[in-house]
Amino acid sequence: MSHRIVVTGLGTVSPCGNRVDQTWDNIRNGRSGIATITKFDASTYTTQIAGEVKGFDPADFIDKKEIKKMDVFIHYALAATKEAMEDAKLTISEDFAEEVGVSIGVGIGGLPNIEYYAGVLKERGPSKITPFFIPMTISNMASGYVSIEFGAKGYNATTTSACSSANHSIGDAARIIERGDAKVMIVGGTESTICGMAIGGFGAMKALSRRNDSPETASRPYDQGRDGFVLAEGCGILILEEYEFAKARGAKMYGELVGYGFSSDAYHITSPTTDGPARAMKMALKDAKLDPSEVDYINAHGTSTPAGDINELKAIKLTLGEENAKKVSISSSKSMTGHLLGAAGGLEAVITLKAMQEGIVPPTINLESPDPECDLDVTPNHAKKREIKVAMSNSFGFGGTNATLVFRKI
Amino acid sequence: MSDVAERVKKIIVDQLGVEEADVKDDSNFIDDLGADSLDTVELVMAFEEEFGLEIPDEEAEKITTVKIAIEHIQKALNG
């Protein structure tokens, strides 16, 4: 009864580029997308840097009249989905439209407009709130607009689980195909929250890097000098297809999604356990029917926080065993992109599949003086060649939620 | 063509993303200019903003064409 699932299209808008090829070129070459915040005046904030998308014009993708009805996370989803659909050479026709679903993960949603209209409400009263306020900000509207734009008439919802939203979206969507309820799922994650409420809110948690004088080196997973994550924005979209469906239409296949694992720490809203992520990874490997020794590459959650980075490495050792863990290539692409929150797993799945396609492990940059507890190969500073047959991608979120995907080369 | 009519038409062009030539006096926002019900709410809000008016909901619902909008606003401005 179980159907195989393949990835046939990729799309992204990210701090490192507004398309997949540009983003991958920068990631492979270790170029940071972090800079001083331009979206609002952050001069009074303790953190003044972020991974902003640059030079993106929504008018290239969206009817002018519609642009202002959407918050930016929806713009990114429409742009990245267009790229992914073109990459997959997939046009949805009426004869299978009901078997195409959309599930784009979103961690927060339209926070910039929530912030803006809270001000309008307070200063000018309820009659000045636009009728588009609700549809521009609610998180499932990325999936909603994508389904309208591309004519997908099947499943239409979003997953939200903070920074693991995209991985849950991708994994749960695979289950929908597996049980025969869809042939194609448009999945991934999108997020755009670089505004005062987010920089202020995460800042209050002391979760953000304050390395304002050196933005490009601020995201430094596994380095002794790391001091928090760098907030970023963007979108990563995958086209998942049932294998026979993809084969019949001659689609190219980046890889097969063979494993999905999830778990809850059931411990604390922000402090991680080692056991929780390890259980998600073990479950994903079991689902994939793979031995721990077969994993070549892990795209780590690695957000550049003091506690999280080393904890994940410990969880990897717990999952794979010490010996296998020493042989696997690990990297945190967040060292270049910053942390896209609910979109992180989408972008990182795109990066993982490009790494697999080209046989190149992307680097963890800014690793100048590794934490003494960093005893695994986190691919410091430079990409390296390695055949990647099996790759894993981790995402963990506030609330103690963990989700792991496993891809295999076809 | 009054100043009010020109300003009303400019707002319609901006809000609904239509060509100026398509905005005729008898154009209906929904039937002729592609607006949906939410667009018409926002359109009336834009009229309020431009002319410094408060248009009550029961009045706003009657503003369905370009001509009605112009007449309503002219009347309101003349008090």
Automatic annotation (TrEMBL), chain A:
Involved in the type II fatty acid elongation cycle. Catalyzes the elongation of a wide range of acyl-ACP by the addition of two carbons from malonyl-ACP to an acyl acceptor. Can efficiently catalyze the conversion of palmitoleoyl-ACP (cis-hexadec-9-enoyl-ACP) to cis-vaccenoyl-ACP (cis-octadec-11-enoyl-ACP), an essential step in the thermal regulation of fatty acid composition. GO terms for cellular component: cytosol. NCBIfam families: fabF (TIGR03150), PRK07314.1 (NF005589). It holds the Pfam family ketoacyl-synt. This is 3-oxoacyl-[acyl-carrier-protein] synthase 2. It catalyses: a fatty acyl-[ACP] + malonyl-[ACP] + H(+) = a 3-oxoacyl-[ACP] + holo-[ACP] + CO2; (9Z)-hexadecenoyl-[ACP] + malonyl-[ACP] + H(+) = 3-oxo-(11Z)-octadecenoyl-[ACP] + holo-[ACP] + CO2. The active site is at 163 (for beta-ketoacyl synthase activity). Pathway: Lipid metabolism; fatty acid biosynthesis. It comes from the Bacteria. Keywords: Acyltransferase, Fatty acid biosynthesis, Fatty acid metabolism, Lipid biosynthesis, Lipid metabolism, Transferase. Its EC number is 2.3.1.179. GO terms for molecular function: 3-oxoacyl-[acyl-carrier-protein] synthase activity. Belongs to the thiolase-like superfamily. Beta-ketoacyl-ACP synthases family. GO terms for biological process: fatty acid biosynthetic process. Residues 2-409 form the Ketosynthase family 3 (KS3) domain. It is an enzyme of class 2 (transferase).
UniProtKB/TrEMBL annotation, chain B:
Coiled coil: none annotated. Pathway: Glycolipid biosynthesis; KDO(2)-lipid A biosynthesis; Lipid metabolism; fatty acid biosynthesis. Keywords: Cytoplasm, Fatty acid biosynthesis, Fatty acid metabolism, Lipid biosynthesis, Lipid metabolism, Phosphopantetheine, Phosphoprotein. Residues 2-77 form the Carrier domain. GO terms for molecular function: acyl binding; acyl carrier activity; phosphopantetheine binding. It is found in: Cytoplasm. PROSITE patterns: CARRIER, PHOSPHOPANTETHEINE. One of its GO terms (cellular component) is membrane. GO terms for biological process: Kdo2-lipid A biosynthetic process; lipid A biosynthetic process. Transmembrane segments: none annotated. SMART domains: PKS_PP. 4'-phosphopantetheine is transferred from CoA to a specific serine of apo-ACP by AcpS. This modification is essential for activity because fatty acids are bound in thioester linkage to the sulfhydryl of the prosthetic group. 4'-phosphopantetheine is transferred from CoA to a specific serine of apo-ACP by acpS. InterPro entries: ACP, ACP-like_sf, PKS_PP-bd, PP-bd_ACP, Ppantetheine_attach_site. NCBIfam families: acyl_carrier, PRK00982.1-2, PRK00982.1-3, PRK00982.1-4, PRK00982.1-5. Carrier of the growing fatty acid chain in fatty acid biosynthesis. Belongs to the acyl carrier protein (ACP) family. This is Acyl carrier protein. The gene is acpP.
